[in-house]
Amino acid sequence: MAKLKYNKQGRLLFTKEMKKDYTILCPMMAPIHFRLIVNVMKNCGYHFELLSTTGPNIVQEGLKYVHNDTCYPALLVIGQFIDALHSGKYDLNKTALIITQTGGGCRASNYIHLLRKALKKAGLEQVPVISLNLSFLERNPGFQITLSMVRKFVAGVVYGDALMLLHNQTEAYEINKGNSGQKVEKWIAVLSEQFNRGRGLSLKEQRKNLNAIVQDFAAVPVRKTPKVKVGIVGEIYVKYAALGNNNLEEFLRGQDCEINVPGIMGFALFKVDNRLEDIRLYGGRPAKKFVVQKLMNYLTKMQDILIDAVKTEPKFLAPTPYTHTKSLVKDIIGYGDKMGEGWLLTAEMMELTEQGYENIVCAQPFGCLPNHICGKGMIHKIKAVDERSNIVPIDYDPSATRVNQENRIKLMLAVAREKLPNQKGNINQQNK
Amino acid sequence: MKIGLDVGSTTIKCVVMDETGNILYRSYERHYSKITEKMTELLEKVRREFSLDETAKLTVSGSAGMGISQTCGLPFVQEVYATRIAVGKLIPDADVIIELGGEDAKILFLSGGLEVRMNGSCAGGTGAFIDQMATLLNVSLEEMDSLAARYEKIYTIASRCGVFAKSDVQPLLNQGARATDISASIFAAVANQTIAGLAQGRPIRGKVVYLGGPLTFLPQLRDSFDRALKVTGVCPENSLYYVAIGAAYCGAVETKLVEALESIRKYGSTGSFLSIPPLFRNAAEYEEFCQRHAQCKAPRGDIGKYSGDAFLGVDAGSTTVKAVLLGRDAEILDSIYKSNSGNPVPIIREYLLGIDQKYPSLRISKSAVTGYGEELLKNAFGIDYGIVETVAHFTAAKHFRPNVDFVIDIGGQDMKCFKIRNGAVDNIFLNEACSSGCGSFLQTFANTLGYEIPEFAKLGLFAEHPVDLGSRCTVFMNSQVKQAQKDGATTEDISAGLSVSVVKNAIYKVIRVPNAEELGRNIVVQGGTFLNDAVLRVFEKELGVEVTRPDISGLMGAYGAALYAMGKPAAQTTLIGPEELENFKHEVKVTNCGLCSNHCRLTINIFGGNRRFIGGNRCEKPVTKRNSKSELNMVAYKMDLLASYRKSEPGPRGKIGIPMGLNLYELLPFWHSFFTSLGFEVVVSPMSDRELYLNGQSTIPSDTVCFPAKLMHGHVQALIDEGIQNIFYPCMSYNFDEGISDNHYNCPVVAYYPEVIAANMSTLEGRNLIHDYVGIHRKRDFPVKMHAILQKSFPDITVREVKRAAKAAYGEYDRYMEQVRQRGDEMIAQAEREKLPIIILSGRPYHLDPEINHGIDKLIVSLGAAVITEDIVSRRVGKVHTDVLNQWTYHARLYAAAKYVCSRPDMNLVQLVSFGCGVDAITTDEVRRILEEGDKIYTQIKIDEITNLGAVKIRLRSLFAALEP
Q1: Which of these, A193, B217, B526, B605, could form a disulfide with B556 (CB 3.0-4.6 Å)?
Q2: Is residue B608 a part of any domain in this protein?
């Protein structure tokens, strides 16, 4: 065990000594992205391990150590950590945890504190917790976010978005089941290997890789039949994490749908853009604006290369540029709504509707504060603007039953099927 | 031939029709969760009757049919969709369909843009809810309906969920409200909930069709919907079968019936479920367990041989009434434990009469009563003492285990747990409105499965694979249990699983401890639910300790009350004698109190001999008919002060409306002065009341948001109704930075609720809602930014004017806050002089609203304390260290106030928490930590649309009891 050092406020620090031989556990969210990003971290000299655990004990541990009224993602993420620490798989004196912290006005900024409280309750106070954020919250001597790391991160997100999007658009129609899944695995391996050699990160290499990825997916033999197209939006964790949304993507695929899950890049752009909006709405220093604008431009460029690459193949539908997504909610909700997913969630619902994925599952943790506004609060208005939208809000928490959730989704799908060309009556003969 | 099978949560419906759509056969049955059996039985029957040897167009629908059809490869159609198909063919001119089922509620808008809505993850207002309420009232559904037909008054009941409604209905029962009025109120609540929760702002007009079991069988429920919607809806022929009919219409695929039957049968025997280890490994282990607990016995005496002074203790609980009679050596002479059937008064009368007749040589010399019905019984029978439940239970527990550290009592409806510190009741935990898992929960399930509770509990003891059901809402537990049954769990497994669920709920949701150390070693468990050995066993296993369960576990409240009475010095008892008992009368009148803006609905109980009892009041006004003397109540003071900003002179720029809710409460002085300076007449929405809330209720899109936010719809509507053209309700991510926190956000709901108002209130059409993003935290940028916003609506406003107005606004805000602080300091000083205990009633500024706080401030004052708000003392300490990110302006005050309270022996903190407040899931734990580190008791009160003041009173009285030297 490394020597435990604390800062002035008594927070346990992740020291340089710890960096050498501590395993840093990272919770799972979006599997494709996180696997790539974890490789980035390993590449930066940290012993990262992504938790891909599932099972009922995670919720049990969450219920045990977290305030039960706290949002479901906190309960699951913390439950997953404690479950792992209790599993006996890790040396508790050589393990650290990492969790993101946005610094926004939502409860999510407090997850890290809830995690520390939980560790204390569980008698695991020697386990350091690292905050991963871009708001200069909580520094640690043994963990530094460098500019090059941010660059690699962004590359991971771009690749992740590309793979997720192409996989979703191909998988539903592939003739040989499993083809597109194999492509995802292949590319995660290829890219990880490139990262290890410090490659695949320059603009040029990214373009090259992305084009190759797009071509590779385009080569998968498909049969295009009309399918119900479903978009998934929501609170970021339950939107992406199968653990949080009861395997929503798998369920929808089983219902013979093509799914579309808007990427993480949009969220990153949104979070950066918020700082510009703050300055625009309330005033602020020009210097700050300059720096943020630079970052914004960089991310926009990254999104552009992704869009350009996808557009090289007409059979794929590229994501819309951030500026367009943003313009969709101009008269719907204010750009000042920035907590949680804020106006972006509303915008994604508009965007999906516009792109033909008008059947939408809006996933949120039960009682999610921002989504009272930008999720459920906006459905009425979206429908008024674009009548095609067919949105079902679904709440996730430890006591919601799967049957109940699926029944509501099926209702949304029944309405969707009615609009499908050459529909064979609204009966889903199960394809087992 | 087409067969439609609707397998719902409680019933199974079957329709057979020919190809032209003629219905040849229909049936409707409860399936008692034996779904596969019922399905095969029905299909066999249909097959025989119609000699269907080969195939038929079979289509399954319904929530419980979903899984089966999927696994068995049967055609399935979602039930709401099926309904629509059926209505489209049978009632083509229908505009709106309202369908209530066992656990679902649905509304379908057919004309003017198709929309289908289903209740979300809360099952309030469904058939299961009505069933629960009937059980509570101890009547059948038919009786309930005929009772409702004779109603006179409607009470306000939350129908959001059964647990909520129970806590509303129970006090009504305890106050003696009539069953007729309660029944009708329950139906009205269901109608309200369905309309508000599902219509979400869309008006229900035209031809309304009622479908489903509850609406078919309960004409009074239909009438309630008619009244609420101001329409006359129709309940068509076959109203029970629409889903099945729709499914049959959808039939397109020929299914081989023999194969289908075969696979359904197989389905029943497959599947697996999550289980936990058995409660007892073998009979010997159980034997040892029983022997250990058998040692804890209360001494008994022979009442037949007893003469002289005896002591009576009564516990009028939520569902049961208990009485214990003690002899002079604290031996139990006699006891009763009965269901209160909605009214404990006749039970106690009969009991007292019986004692008197059978044992003339016995004389009850002292008596005490506790529980929900405390005041009613005390007044009815002249019982000497009324004590708070926690004190009664502690008194009893101490008798068994003098060094007791922790007491947990699980009763029918509620759970009470408390720690003992320095010989007094300390930290109290009560189950909140939405945590299920008490005795009646087990009972409901036992009854559904056809067992009595003792028998049912025994089944679980030796279950081989107790089901892991998690802990969840009673209504949804139903579906979970059904799922487990389908997956092959036996009744034994389910019984054990439910016991586990009750215990886990208690430990992790109510008490919230991960291990026994935090509770102390000496734990006494009691309450009727712990008579259940399975529950007791799970509790011990889960915490890893051996606990004490007295053999009179269910009587502990009454026992404690009797001990309490016994310990009091001798005095002439006020208990009424045999003659008065003989001539006992009990009449109930219902009226509204008009003495203040709370408009409490009073239930006046009149007994013989000038004894009466008024229930439902929050303060003493209706009882004493007097205004309480000058009170030390900061809540009242702030309300008075804010009232002065409600007035405004007509201005050259016309009127501007401000809805009085959420953050605008504290910012009213700011905006009032701002707009007055600009030449507007400021019109503030009226004081909140029930009617104002209901007027805006139908436009609330998210039914799980906190009540203060929901109330905003009513305030905006009130301004619209007043004809105000321009309404100002700004979005504000940030609040003022008071220098005591890391950031100064508003919570997401407060910050952006104006967006919800703008997007969902169609009545705003043609009006101007100014809901731009405003940053008052940047004083220097504010005027320019605000000018740009205002110019969009009032082009003639100049920057200069806005600058002047801003100056006035900031000045007025500071003046207001200073005035509040000064008066607060004075009140504290006065309380110090008068040696009054001080309660720091903390929450948010908008908790000042009496419709939100339900007059809890007055309740505290009536208990003899000064009420000071958190902002008065938060300024006295500055920024405090917290273990959480201290990033919200209002919440930072909480932490600071908690810290300050620790330094004052005369102060205690009570935190008001709005149900559904996500931020408070974080603050409550932190405030508790701060207080406990300072050796203070943490008291949290959850408030919602409707709040059970009975439970609030227990909390507050227990707090005061603990403070007594």
Answers
A1: B526
A2: no
